[in-house]
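Q: Sequence in, structure out?
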Amino acid sequence: MPAFAASWRPLTQLRAELSLLLRRRPFWWYAVVAGLWIAGVATSAGDAVKWVVPLAWLWGLTAFSEHGARADIHGTRALLASAPAPLLRQLPVQWLAATLLALILVAPVVGKLLLIGGGGTAAQVAIGAAFIAASTLALGAVSGGSRLFELTFLMLWYGAVQDVPGARFSGNPDLAFRASYAPTYLVISAALFALTWGLRTATQRR
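A: Exactly. Output:
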């Protein structure tokens, strides 16, 4: 096994990515997260999916926004590209870290859904988390900054809470999994991930 492959520690890298996502969050940011967790437990499962999940992800916007463009914003793209197998090692872990953070923010809601047999709705929420992660990576790769993701997220978020058809990426407790937009968002997430891979590959070849 090549030395560089043997030295790769994906769990260590995942912890580092999560640390970057949560870097410089003040105490009151975590206090609000705790309040949202309590709201997720205290409200009905349906209301938690309709309101608590979107609010929790809106609260996490500042953490997600730079994730896809951090290397460009801080001028470390060339340094990261010099690492062995940078795309294969970095991109999936970055996507997983953002997905995990989105799920952590709504963990009590997902747990409640699983306990009451709402696995289909929990899957919708999980796909919404994956979509957020794929979006911040793709839009960061496209724009080289955080603003495009922030604007896109806010428009989709507003559409979701207003029940605009197709905009509820956070899940719909009134619909079965197959009848929801979750399968569509799963395909979109995969396409965004592929777009990010292609854009970063092109950037490395320059």
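The chain has a mean pLDDT of 89.
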